[in-house]
């Protein structure tokens, strides 16, 4: 394959920083460290069964290691978490890290002075897909560390990470699919990079990514339909009713069960993704985690002209209450997300007329 004249990720970042004369280059260095971690994880994923990192972590009589989420950890969850930690802990760029796979914030070794950023990540999203060779990814969010952490060099606490998504300095994900891609926003739109496996470089392949405002494609786990709240049920019923229903057009449906892959499809061609708050388990207000799933993906969507919401308010405006807080999440094409928000704000909707999702249907008890 001939060497193209496309920009590398490094060149892109240098150009972006020109907008901020006097910038130290620390953010660029941090993003490049994250990208390097993602390349290492991409290799581990690509080797599959041959690399010895498939299957559940530390399989035992109970079926495997359980993480803070109460979920069985895959070996690759653990490996990916280690890769993120080892690549970033000594860089001098961070004041602390937090991950889906660690109950508490990770303290940067050494002491004063601390770096000025916090790194929050889901080292491997879509874990349930690892063993069946379906796309998975890593999601990351970069926040500023509070001033007193930087000045005093004190250890970070959970509270330091509880910043609304709107304050993210940068966010992105790597997708380990047929090709490995890195999608990134440093607050000036969204750019996409494809890993050239020969060179080991992320090359700029998608400039100024835009999510179309309208779509005919939605994604939701229909096995949860009996737990949905009325506005969600109404929205899905109307999509299913297609051309003969109130929407007057047919919709298609997708469910990969790997949010990072769904987010990528939506960045590329539009669509709407829903993992809404539901009544399945009152102790869990949603499935996805705010700090390292909803916020970074929400940042990318908004930066690409799409929208991300809890269904009731913009996701980026939510003040987090916990490191591993779960939340209802709807994102994608702007007009669809706004419609879903409208349904949440309208008075209780009537029971649907659609037989598939009505009280005595296929998808109900
Ligand atoms: O289809 P399910 O089982 O409800 O869950 C799918 C969701 O779970 C997730 O895989 C959760 O992420 P993790 O793999 O990081 O735990 C999301 O990516 C996805 O949207
Ligand atoms: Mg995840
Ligand atoms: Mg994960």
Please tell me about this protein's structure.
Mg(2+) 1 binds at residues 100, 122, 124. Helix 2 runs antiparallel to helix 3 (75-88) and helix 6 (230-241) packs across helix 9. The chain has 365 residues and is α+β, with helices and mostly antiparallel strands. The protein folds into 2 domains: 9-206, Fructose-1,6-Bisphosphatase, subunit A, domain 1 (Fructose-1,6-Bisphosphatase, Chain A, domain 1, 2-Layer Sandwich), CATH 3.30.540; 217-345, D-Maltodextrin-Binding Protein, domain 2 (3-Layer(aba) Sandwich), CATH 3.40.190.80. It contains 9 helices and 15 strands. Strand 1 and strand 2 form a beta hairpin. Strands 2-1-3-4-5-6-7-8 form an 8-stranded mixed sheet, with helices on both faces. Strands 10-9-11-15-13 form a 5-stranded mixed sheet, sandwiched between helices. The structure holds 1,6-di-O-phosphono-beta-D-fructofuranose (FBP) and magnesium ion (2 copies). One magnesium ion (MG) is lined by residues 122, 125, 293. The site of one magnesium ion has 6 residues, from strand 3.
Summarize the structure.
Belongs to the FBPase class 1 family. With 365 residues, this protein is an alpha+beta fold.
Summarize this structure as a short list of keywords or feature phrases:
365 residues; alpha+beta; Fructose-1,6-Bisphosphatase, Chain A, domain 1; D-Maltodextrin-Binding Protein, domain 2; 2 domains; eight-stranded mixed beta sheet; five-stranded mixed beta sheet; 9 helices; globular; disordered C terminus; binds 1,6-di-O-phosphono-beta-D-fructofuranose; binds magnesium ion; FBPase_N; carbohydrate metabolism
